[in-house]
Structures are given as C-alpha cells and as structure tokens.
Amino acid sequence: MDSIPVSDELWAVGELALNYAFELLEKHPKEPFQPAILAEYTSGKIGLHQLFVMKSDDPEALARMVLADLPDVARAAIVLDGYLHIEGEPQDAILMRLGDFSGTSYEIGQRYRRKRLGKRVDAVGNVAFMGEIPSIFA
After folding, report:
1. What is the pLDDT of residue 24?
2. How far apart are CA 14 and CA 23, in angstroms?
C-alpha cells in the first residue's frame, strides 16, 4: 500500500482484518459491532480472535489485554467500530490498530456506508493512515 508506511507483511494482516470487519458489518447489520484481533504468529499461522464486549467495557482496552495474553504473535491488527471526522462531521468507520511485535504500531481508518436497509456495506474513499501510536503489544 503506497500511502501507508507499513511493511507488506504487516499490511497483509491489516487487509485481512479490514475484510473481516466489513464481513461482520454485513452479516450482523442490526447488532453492535464486536471488535476482533487478527494475529499472525511466529509460525506463520493466522489466528482470528472475536471479542464480545458489553456496553460498559472499553473495547480497545479489552482487545489489548487479550492480545497481551496471546503467545508468539509476530504482528497483529485490532479492528474496532468508530468514527472518522471529515470536515467536522462524524462518519462511520472501521478503526484499526496495526503493529509488529518488535516494531511500530499504527492507527488506520476506513469509512463505510450502509446500503439496502443496512444489509450491504460499502467502503467510502480510501484507507486513511492516521499515524503512529503506542505499541498495541504494550
């Protein structure tokens, strides 16, 4: 991905995670989005960890806690539902925290719009690189 300064290996994990997030939005249009972790292990295997949070839970804190307990993770993505603000207006978005275990972590967003009574979800615009963040593994 030219506009996002991450390695090809890390972006491959991010793409899988974004695709999974869009799949969740389409399969469960009337339910709250539940965050997920997509992890690539040092063995090269990919693991998907679907989280279930209550309204009072902090989804990102829960995801980071679960990620910290996973052994031998080389890189991972946490996907959350949220908003990107475009010209001061909130727009629905998948927010992704993406990082290598031994490297930098990043925040990335992809806006979306529901179509056909919420049963279809379309990406809006390009993936947005929002910058470096503290390690998702900390």
Report:
1. 92
2. 14
Residue 116 burial class via C-beta count within 10 angstroms: exposed 0-12, middle 13-18, buried 19 and up: exposed
Q: Which one-letter amino acid corresponds to residue 28? A: H
> Pairing between strand 73-86 and 46-50?
unpaired
Q: In what order do the strands lie in the sheet with 120-133?
A: 46-50, 36-41, 73-86, 89-100, 105-115, 120-133
pTM: 0.91
Long-range (24+ apart) CB contacts under 8 A made by 19-26 are: 20/48, 20/79, 21/79, 21/81, 21/94, 21/96, 22/94, 22/112, 22/121, 22/123, 25/81, 25/94, 25/112, 25/114, 25/121, 26/119, 26/120, 26/121
Q: In the structure, what pLDDT confidence band is assigned to residue 31 with cuts at 50, 70 and 90?
A: confident
Residue 51 has pLDDT above 90, yes or no: yes
